[in-house]
Amino acid sequence: MFAGPIIFGFILGFILGSRVRDDTFPPSSYIVLILALILVAWNLGPFPYYTDLPIATGFVAAAAGIMAGRILFGRG
């Protein structure tokens, strides 16, 4: 498992998530968003030559970073 794409994806997602306005996503849309992100990450597959998980770990980390940045520093 390589930590580079995971760390970079989370940091980039965190920065993007901190710029999201409060009225963009209502709280109920997070369930749909999480399911869509998992589906996209599964279809993307792992990075070339990575055999840790069958999903794109960098994409999942970016999605988690967006949600964390939105919750912690979302613009309102």
From TrEMBL:
Domain of life: Archaea
TM annotation in the entry: 6-22, 29-49, 55-73
Keywords, ordered alphabetically: Membrane, Transmembrane, Transmembrane helix
UniProt name for this protein: Energy-converting hydrogenase B subunit J
Protein species of origin: Methanothermobacter thermautotrophicus (strain ATCC 29096 / DSM 1053 / JCM 10044 / NBRC 100330 / Delta H) (Methanobacterium thermoautotrophicum)
Taxonomic classification: Archaea, Methanobacteriati, Methanobacteriota, Methanomada group, Methanobacteria
